[in-house]
Sequence to fold (242 residues):
Amino acid sequence: MRLEIKNVSAEYSGKQIITNVNFSVADGEFVSILGESGSGKSTLLKVISGILPAARGEIFVDDEKVTKISKHFAYMPQDDLLLPWWNIMQNVCLAAKISGDLPTAEKRAKKLLEEFGLAEYKNSYPKELSGGMRQRIAFLRTALSSADIWMLDEPFAALDVITRGELQDWLLDLREKISNTVLLVTHDIEEAIYLSDKIYIIRGTPSKIVKEIKISTDYRNRQWLYEQGNLKKDIFEAIKGA
Fold:
């Protein structure tokens, strides 16, 4: 599904945090919102998701105006939020348990566990899994929602550099198996380059989109990423306003 943001602004305690944000995400596209900590990027994601209200502006999904939390969006926060007293299958089916559609969800969850390479952990508990594995489970829960647009709020921020790299590789591979539109918030330049079709850089007070960068390549791996030195430099300078 196509996502379009038109002149969106947001306020907190009477102070403008984000101003006149405009951008679009094509159907099936992976787009990153990249900026420093405190730049308002997570606030922007929550406004688009309907978790926080917009002070001004409009949000459209396939030309349908969205004004509140929508079935089109699956929001994934930084923390995995797995319930420690439930096993993995129970955790990923939590929303279905609440809505009353548990049998259908369990059937689909079993299929996704296989596709995500997590079938052997379905009866495990969160405390038995590594941080990286828990985040994979959180991604599976997001996929199980059936939402067309994934909203990822720095999902790898709390992980160590090795685990974060492994999860980025895993997500890159997963992209070949899904058709979802993805909007990722991150402060990691390499992460944005590695995963994205397009990057929007946000900065300023109040924050706004200052640059759009398209990533055109038919093949990505770590070696390709290491060779993007000039692009990293350009992005860094755009973030800093150099």
Q: What stands out?
A: Residues 30 and 182 are 5 Å apart (CA to CA). Strands lie at 3-12, 15-25, 30-34, 56-61, 64-65, 73-76, 149-153, 181-186, 198-203, 208-214. The two ends are 35 Å apart (CA to CA). The mean pLDDT is 89.
